[in-house]
Amino acid sequence: MNPKSVIKGRGAQLNVPNRFFELSHEMRDDFLEYCQKEGEQADKNKTRYLEVFPKTIVNKVTSPDIGMSYSMNAYQGCEHGCVYCYARNTHEYWGYSAGLDFERRILVKKEAPKLLEAFIQKKHWKAHPIVMSGNTDCYQPAEQIYKITRQCLEVFLKHKHPVGIITKNSQILRDLDLIKELAKNNLIAVNLSVTSLSEKTRRVLEPRTTTIKKRLETVKTLTNNGVPVNVMIAPIIPSINSHEILPLAKAASEHGANAIAHTLVRLNGAIGGIFTDWIKKTLPDSADKVLHQIENCHGGTLNDSRFGTRMRGEGKIAEQITNLMLLAKRKYFKEKRMPKLNCDLHEQHKTRQLKFF
What we know:
By secondary structure, the chain is of the alpha/beta class. The protein has 13 helices and ten strands.
């Protein structure tokens, strides 16, 4: 493999065609050769932040095998660049590619805090946990600039509304003051993704994410401050991190996590092609083995969208992974569990008006 052929700091290595577009953009070899001779950059590999103006921010989740009923996303696209990310396909609805565009064209929803507050103040809304980052990470690099996630947490705290967070970024500790206040009334739970104990694996799978050491330190800091944390070993990819299940569970438990959970990798939609291109460029010696084992878990295909089996898979390899997770939970989390969030406080804090009846 020629290292120069790999786009540094990115997961996807190409822009796949958008399934909704009749035409597609192609980077031709003769153009690349011309750029090389002229000393020009064919692709500047820069991230752009683009403001968008949605009318709503809270989404009702209808998928039967996802453990949340409502979610919200302050950003669309994610600069973390996780090559396996299921959310890549959603970028096509915005007119972009699920490949490099997903990592380099980040859509920013500055009005998210106002939209959130208007939603949870609706007369007929009954409090139910709303999960931040059901699609893309609310603590990705853009948050350092826009601070939308922090503003949303202030809304949740103001109205005593339960919230869940999914992230793989230690930047969450920036908002520890708000998170601790929410935790005092059992109004928050954090799901923190840790996919490997190997920095080498992390760097190729998730090139712009927080180091594993910092993630585990984040788990410890949160739990030491009374914040419940569920460590997500997700996704598990056969022959890449599947051998790390027990060590990961042990590390999560030792750092104070309340629970662990997992999903099996699923390469739905455009992600199958993106992942295949990536692994053949970055891990060429093991590419065929990994791809065939993923297919073995999903009925002979990389693209599995069947409710009930897409998250856990089927077949011998998937069964082994499930059994290892059960063993890990019995061994390291036997007496631990995630608390149920408090949905009773919000009604009296929905508005500042006094209620007489």
